[in-house]
Design brief:
The complex is a heterodimer of chains A (238) and B (128). Chain A is built from 10 helices and 9 strands. Chain A is an alpha/beta fold and 238 residues long. In chain A, helix 2 runs parallel beside helix 3 and helix 4 runs parallel beside helix 5. The longest helix of chain A has 17 residues. The two termini of chain A are 32 Å apart. By secondary structure, chain B is α+β, with helices and mostly antiparallel strands. Chain B has one domain: 2-Layer Sandwich (Alpha-Beta Plaits). Chain B is built from 3 helices and 6 strands. In chain B, the strands form 2 sheets. A 4-stranded antiparallel β-sheet of chain B has the order 2-3-1-6, with helices on both faces. In chain B, helix 1 packs antiparallel against helix 2. Chain B is globular, with a radius of gyration of 16 Å. The relative contact order of chain B is 0.23. At the A-B interface, helix 6 and helix 8 of A face helix 2 and strand 6 of B.
C-alpha cells in the first residue's frame, strides 16, 4: 500500500495550530508530514530550537525553510550548517539562480523549494538539474503557490511545466507538497498528483512524487542524524 | 402514421463516464447551497481548462446528488479527463465570501458504487 508524505507544510505560528494542521493532514491520508519553520536569521534558529521540544504528533518532522533571497552565499552557508543540527529536513527556498545552484551543490540541503519563485523561468537549468540529481537534492513544487491570489497562474503553470520537464530529463527527484499553512490549504494526495499529471508528468510518477520520493528524502535525512552512520554507505555495526 | 422509433446512441459512440465524489470542507453551518457550489466548480473548471477543455471534460455537477448537510456531492465527467477535473476541484479556494476547500473522496464508474464506496450508503440506493 502506498504511503503518502507531505514535507512542505509551513509552521502556522503556534504549536496548537501546528498540531491541528498535522491531525487534519493525517486524516486526509498522509503518513508523515514535515512542519517547516521559516529561517531567515537568529529568530528562525531560536524558533527551531523551541519547536524541537514540542510534541506535534506522531510521525511529524521539523524542517527548516531557509530563505536568503537578497542574501549572500555565505549567509546561506552559515544558516545551512546551523539548521542542519536542529532540523530533520533542511530546505532552501529558491528563486535566485545563484542560490539555486549553491543549494543543490551543498551536502547540507535536502530539498530545493520553489526554485521558480519570483522568476520568469523555472529557475532550473541543466547545471542545477544535474547537480540536484548527483547530490540527491529534491526539487519541490508547492501547490500553495498555485492557490495564492495574484500568483499569475498562467505564467506559473508554464514555469511548473518546465520544472517537471527538467526533472524528468535529468532524473532529478521531484517532490510535491501542499505548502499549506492552515487546514484550508491542505489537499488530498491524489488531487496533488492529478494536478501534476496536468503539467505533463505521467500518472505513476505523479503518485510517486507524493509518496515514495518524499519518503526517501525523509529516510535519507533521518539516516544522517543516526550517529552510527559515519558516511554514506558506512555504518557502525554492533 | 408511422412514427419514427427513437434510437439510442450505440455503445461504441457513447462516452465512458466517471463520477467524482467530492466534499466541501468545512461542512456545517452555514453550508453552501448547491447553486454556489455549482458556480464555484464550473468557474474553476473553466478557468483551469478553458472553454475548449471544459467542453471536452463534459463536466456536470449533479444537483440531486448534493447533500447540503454533509457537503458531499457528485460530479460527472468523461473518463479521460478525470485528472483534469480533480485538479480543477483542488483549485477551488472559496465559495462566495467563504474560504473553503473541495476534497475528492473517490472516483467511480457508476453512481451506485460511488455512493456505496465513498459516502457510507451501504446499498448506494439512497437518493440524497
Amino acid at each position: 500500500m502506498r504511503r503518502f508524505h507531505d514535507i512542505g507544510l509551513r509552521y502556522p505560528g503556534t504549536p496548537e495550530d501546528a498540531r491541528e494542521l498535522v491531525t487534519e493532514a493525517k486524516r486526509m491520508g498522509f503518513h508523515r508530514v514535515c512542519i517547516n519553520v521559516p529561517v531567515r536569521g537568529k529568530e528562525g534558529i531560536k524558533l527551531l530550537k523551541s519547536l524541537r521540544d514540542q510534541d506535534l504528533g506522531e510521525g511529524t518532522l521539523i524542517g527548516a525553510d531557509i530563505d536568503v533571497i537578497g542574501g549572500s552565499k555565505n549567509g546561506l552557508h552559515n544558516l545551512l550548517g546551523r539548521a542542519r543540527k536542529l532540523a530533520d529536513i533542511v530546505a532552501v527556498l529558491g528563486g535566485d539562480l545563484a542560490i539555486n545552484k549553491y543549494a543543490v551543490e551543498s551536502r547540507e540541503t535536502d530539498v530545493l523549494r520553489a526554485p521558480y519563485r519570483g522568476r520568469r523561468d523555472s529557475g532550473v537549468d541543466k547545471v542545477v538539474a544535474e547537480a540536484a540529481a548527483r547530490n540527491g537534492v529534491a526539487l519541490e513544487l508547492s501547490f500553495a503557490d498555485v492557490l495564492a491570489p495574484n500568483s499569475g497562474r498562467i505564467g506559473l503553470l508554464r514555469r511548473l511545466g518546465e520544472l517537471v520537464e527538467f526533472a524528468g530529463a535529468f532524473d532529478t527527484c521531484l517532490v510535491l507538497s501542499s505548502g499549506a499553512i492552515d487546514m484550508l490549504g491542505l489537499r488530498v494526495p491524489q488531487d496533488l498528483a492529478a494536478f501534476v499529471t496536468c503539467l505533463g508528468m505521467d500518472n505513476e510518477d505523479a503518485l510517486e512524487a507524493v509518496s515514495t520520493v518524499p519518503g526517501e528524502v525523509v529516510d535519507r535525512a533521518l539516516e544522517r542524524k543516526d550517529e552510527r552512520i559515519i558516511a554514506p554507505g558506512v555504518r557502525v555495526i554492533g | 402514421m408511422n412514427e419514427k422509433k427513437k434510437r439510442r446512441v450505440p455503445a461504441y459512440l457513447r462516452k465512458r463516464k466517471r463520477y467524482i465524489v467530492y466534499q466541501v470542507w468545512p461542512a456545517g453551518n452555514p453550508t453552501p447551497g448547491f447553486n454556489d457550489v455549482d458556480r464555484a466548480i464550473r468557474s474553476s473548471v473553466r478557468s483551469f481548462l478553458g472553454d475548449h477543455g471544459a467542453a471536452q471534460a463534459g463536466v456536470w455537477v449533479m444537483k440531486d446528488r448534493y447533500d447540503p448537510a454533509t457537503g458531499q456531492g457528485l460530479v460527472r465527467c468523461v473518463h479521460e479527463r478525470v485528472d483534469q477535473v480533480r485538479a480543477s476541484l483542488a483549485l477551488v479556494t472559496g465559495i462566495g465570501d467563504a474560504r473553503v476547500r473541495i476534497d475528492t473522496l473517490g472516483v467511480s464508474g457508476s453512481i451506485r458504487t460511488a455512493k456505496r464506496k465513498f459516502t457510507g450508503d451501504e446499498n448506494g440506493t439512497n437518493d440524497t
